[in-house]
Model the fold of this input.
Amino acid sequence: MEQTKIKKINSIYFDNKTENILSELEKTREDFWNLDRYCANFLNMLIKINNSKNVLEIGTSNGYSGIWILKALEEMNNKGRFTTIEFWEKRQSIARKNFTLCSNIKAEAKIGSAIIVLEDLLNEVNNKKREKYDFVFIDANKKEYIEYFKLVDKMLSDKGVILADNILSHYEKTEDYVNELFSRKDYQSQIFDIGAGMMLSRKAI
Ligand SMILES: C[S@@+](CC[C@H](N)C(=O)[O-])C[C@H]1O[C@@H](n2cnc3c(N)ncnc32)[C@H](O)[C@@H]1O
Done:
């Protein structure tokens, strides 16, 4: 029997205000390079399944995926914190507004080039001014994924999770990231052929 591909989700219904904002953002998805709802739902579920408390996103855009992250933290009600990085000020300011409208959790929206901001965050983690991250979503400059990983690895908690987008759509740029993760004995990884191709990696120690 031929296998039927069912691309359907049963995502939870957020409050009306959040649903309206998500629907509006979905209309301009291509301009802001946002995840589709299918992958956003996956992201939201993973954060909850991992019971993540501190979540970091690299690549905020207008905040679409960030809203799904905030909603996961809100649902878990675990005093979770969300940090997100974007170098395009206009996008970051739209995202800040969207976060405030959709969630009571205050997002820590960092402006700047991802590698520089990650270095600052790592310094804070090393100086015990910041807790390690339990979940990192990588979705910025594809060529830099490997550099993000080198920094993220040092501030990821044991059994922490990394989800990276555009692995298959930009494989020529993400290949060194993929090879590094697959070669690491301390990470368990798998690529999911959903959306633009997402790689899920779990720190095994
Ligand atoms: C694919 S979009 C993020 C989409 C968002 N995660 C979502 O699904 O709603 C990537 C974003 O990363 C930003 N970006 C790209 N390179 C960056 C860098 N080196 N540092 C900081 N932000 C960067 C871009 O301006 C863009 O808004």
Notes: Residues 33-35, 59, 61, 64-65, 85-88, 91, 113-114, 139-141, 144 surround S-adenosylmethionine (CB under 6 Å). Strands lie at 54-58, 81-86, 108-111, 133-138, 156-164, 187-192, 198-203. Residues 25 and 31 are 10 Å apart (CA to CA). The longest helix spans residues 89-102.
